[in-house]
Amino acid sequence: MAGNGQHGRWVKVFTALMLTFTVVGCQRIGRMPDEVLTSDSMPSAESKKGTNSPDLSKPFDLLEASIDGDSLRVTVRYGGGCAPHDFSLHSNGPALRSMPPQQLLRIEHRANADPCRALIQENHSFDLSSFRASPRGVVLLRLDEWELTYTYE
Predict the structure, then answer these.
(1) In DSSP terms, which residues pair with 67 in a beta bridge?
(2) Considering the entire predicted model, what is its pTM?
């Protein structure tokens, strides 16, 4: 009998500790800064997938990427077909100090609440002149799994 009473006391202590950890843990999550909860500055981990910002960007496949002069030309594929879709190119922070400098890039895809599911493939072009980071005329661009050398004068 004495052993059974001691077992009951341990169960009560364990339950009280678990309740305390749950309450304290939930309060800390509510106080975390927004930068920790969002990952729009991080590249997508999926191979050859478009990078996703939780606020704006919707999933898409990046099929091809190449540089033509001062333009980045990409071929994308996405689900839609009932509303226009917008694609925009953004940096993922400042150029990295290396030789040659490296610039991390991401493409954001706005689907404009398109409910359709047709598989659409499109070509898009983006101006790269704002990413000139080296007096030597060369920048290595990193767009998801793609590495592209941007040469300019």
Answers:
(1) 72
(2) 0.61
* Calpha distance 92→106 (Å, rounded): 7
Using H for helix, E for strand and C for coil, what is the string for 86-146?
EEEEEECCCCECCCCCEEEEEEEEECCCCCCCEEEEEEEEEECHHHCCCCCCEEEEEECCE
Q: How many CA atoms lie within 13 A of 111 on its CB side?
A: 23
Per-residue pLDDT of 112-149, as tens digits, reads 999 999 999 999 999 999 999 888 899 999 998 899 99
Cα(56)–Cα(38) distance, integer angstroms: 12
One DSSP character per residue, 28-53 reads: HHHTS-HHHH--TTSPPSSTTBPP--
Q: Does residue 58 have a pLDDT over 60?
A: yes
Cis peptide before 115 (omega within 30 of 0): no
